[in-house]
């Protein structure tokens, strides 16, 4: 809990400070609003996080206009991968870059020395990721539906699947992004540390190509990480049920999708608790 001092008294009277306690939810939301404002003020972050997936859809959907089998257009397949990539970008990549920069500038060190509970900082990041992730997903769906005839989910069950796959996926990406932020030695070196990892995951997870067309060793490598399962879960939402037979396991395997993403949430949380650093190595 935090306290805010408020003075209230009629003119000429002695003012008496009144302390109002700010609850944990209000603290988290307030920090979240601050994080969102900071994000929107950074043009580079907005362009890369929000517009890059849209540009990629426009480029790939304009080049690859054919079917990939079963009456499924490449656009439909590609959009599912780009939605997952968008969640990876805002949850994993952006945090793994932002946090080292804030650490390098001494922002985290100063926050650690204030009365504000440590969890508020992370709550703000979570709120920011959730809001930006929802906005980006909505933008991708609108663009794909209007320009490339993407068929939106037509049943409550598919929307429910869309919801839990997205929620588990962005949670895993957020936790892994916070944990991965400790690997960068400096804020300047963070993009060079994080971006190659994100790009490799996209290529091996079936974002830019049909997953089953990739070499088997690449498929096995991708199956270790959450992005592949996010893409697969989203394909069950936007592609016909019959397309599940073309997946490596012969179906969309939603149970395994939930299990793997849930495990990565646990792994990410453990890594956050054991590896997160508030100061740089030179600060001790």
UniProtKB/TrEMBL annotation:
The record's similarity note reads:
Belongs to the ABC-2 integral membrane protein family.
Q: Which InterPro entries match?
A: ABC2_TM, ABC2_TM_bact-type, ABC_2_transport, Nod_factor_ABC_transporter
What PROSITE patterns does this protein's entry cite? ABC_TM2
Give the membrane topology, semicolon-separated if more than one: Multi-pass membrane protein
Q: Which residues form the ABC transmembrane type-2 domain?
A: 44-279
Its domain of life? Bacteria
Q: Where in the cell is it found?
A: Cell membrane; Membrane
Under which name does UniProt file this protein? Answer: Transport permease protein
Residues annotated as coiled-coil are none
Kindly list the organism's lineage. Bacteria, Bacillati, Actinomycetota, Actinomycetes, Micromonosporales
Transmembrane parts of this sequence: 46-65, 77-99, 119-147, 159-180, 192-211, 257-276
Q: Which key words tag this protein in UniProt?
A: Antibiotic resistance, Cell membrane, Membrane, Transmembrane, Transmembrane helix, Transport
